[in-house]
Each structure stands twice: as C-alpha cells, then as structure tokens.
Amino acid sequence: MKKIEQIIPTLNLIYFDYDYKKNLFINEVDYTNENVKKEFFKITYVLSKHNIRFDVLENNSLIAINKKFSIFDRIIKKIKDKIEDYNNSKANIFLLNNQKRKWAKNIPLFEIKYLEKDIDLRKYDALVFSSQNGVMAIDKVNSDWKDIPSYVIGKESAKKVKELGGYINFIANKSNTYEFTNELVCELKNKKVLYVRGNKITSNISDDLNKNGILSEEVILYENNYIEPLVKEVLPKNSKIIFSSPSTVEYFFKTFKWHHSFKAISIGETTLKYFPSDIKPILSDKASLSSCIKKAILL
Q1: Tens of pLDDT along 181-215?
Q2: CB atoms within 10 A of CB 78
Q3: What are phi and psi of 169, to 5 degrees?
Q4: Are 44 and 171 spatial neighbours (Cβ–Cβ below 8 Å)?
Q5: Closest of 9, 54, 20, 17 to residue 36, by C-alpha
Q6: Distance between the two ends of the chain, CA-based, in angstroms?
Q7: Which domains are delineated in the chain?
Q8: Which of 129, 168, 230, 242 could cross-link 134 (Cys pair, CB 3.0–4.6 Å)?
Q9: CB-CB neighbours of 130 under 10 Å
C-alpha cells in the first residue's frame, strides 16, 4: 500500500490542498463547482484504490485520512470551527484587490482593463500564463485558446483555466517567474509558444524562453492600473496586509503610510523583492491567496 506522501504529487491537485500536520484534504471553493466535484471524486477514488481509510466532512470540503468521525466528533468539530470563524473574522487581514476570501477584507487598489486584439492562435502549440488575468483576457478575444495546452504559474491561474474550459498541461511548482521559466524549458521543447501577459511584468518569460531555444512570442492583453480609494481607510494597528504582486506593493505605499505594528505577507519570492528595505515581509508557504490568509492568521 502506498503512503499518502507518495500519492499527493500524482493527484495534481488544484482545488484541494493537503495539510500534512492534520492529515486533511481541504477545499475552500464552493463544492457546487463541477471541477471541484471532479477533483473530489479523483481523490476519493485514488484513496480507495490504495486501501487508505478516510472520512468526508462538511459538505465534501474536508477529507480526513486514516480516521473515522463519530457523531460526537462531528459536533465538537462544528463548535470548534464556529469559534475559529469568529476569532478569525475579527483579525484585520486585508487584500489589496476585489477578490472575496474568507476572513479577509478588501481594499481594491487597482483595476484590470482588458484589451481587444485579433490573435491567430492556430500557429501556437502552447500558451503560457503567469496570471489569471491573462487567462480571462484571452478568453475575451479568442475562444480557440481552449484547444491549446496551457502552462501556468500558480493554482489561481490553473483554477481560472479550468473554470473557463481550458486544458492544463503543466502547473509550475515554483512561485517566481525565474524558476517558472526554468521549469518550462524542458516542458516546451520543440513547441511554438505564446506568452499572454499584462502591461506590467517583473521579468520577460518570452525573452527568457527564446534565450533557451524555445520559439516564443508574447501579446499584451490587459493593463493593471492604479485606482486611488475614494475614501482612504485608516488601517488599524496590527493589520496584516497581503501583497499578491509587485504592483500591489507599489500601490499600497503610494496610498498608505506604514505603521511598525503592521505585518506584510508576500504571495511569492518575486513580490518579496519589491518591498522597501526597512520592511521585512513574511513569505507565504504557497503562491495562493488562501495560503497567504492562513499565514496571516498564524501571525
């Protein structure tokens, strides 16, 4: 019988994360999402196939490994979860976008403007996305992208590809574009690539691929533009601010003054490099907003 540690990498999970300490598969996306259901059934099928005991909790959002829960266990867990929800909802955790996440408040500091362009996708064998905005942008201009394998960085981008009906061929394990490019070189050998990006980038993946012998072109399909809040919110002391890109670092310090009691959480190593030298951000364990929020709660 295979150990769970051997099975996790083979599942290629997008919606569920595995908590090695608690022995839980955890999903924070609405289970009515068809892609979530498919991943849920894939997990339970593989666990059953390898004779690994498990139990399912909370509307299929949790899968516990090597444990069965009694009715009493379930009641106790619900009580603990309610207490945790109450405590976490009081935490001053801020996202600098308009994406709704449990326990986080939103201060949108930018807007995405999608650009209209005619693109002939027939000459490309692969599409590269470093942001979910790129996925949404290409979906607005040419639906044929769904027939071309997508290579993405981060689960957020992967979820958007799935949601819009695309085909994922590769999800980068690394959270910065430099290491992402290194991973792509082997994957994209002998393919013609289109890198879909915005007007602001920290490194040019297309140029890097070309330098490594991969025939790559790029197209700018969206703009990331700063928006100043109509009412500038006064952030309470001990606020925990999540920075999901280098541009959010720029926009935050353009809008707010930093207080020594604040905590900064960076979604990845690339974003980490853009903070002022006197601020020491904390790196999220994974390149996702959910992971950032979990890290903020622990601070």
Answers
A1: 888 888 999 999 999 999 998 888 999 999 999 99
A2: 12
A3: -105, -20
A4: no
A5: 17
A6: 38
A7: 4-84 (no CATH), 91-109+235-298 (3.40.50.10090), 112-225 (3.40.50.10090)
A8: 129
A9: 25
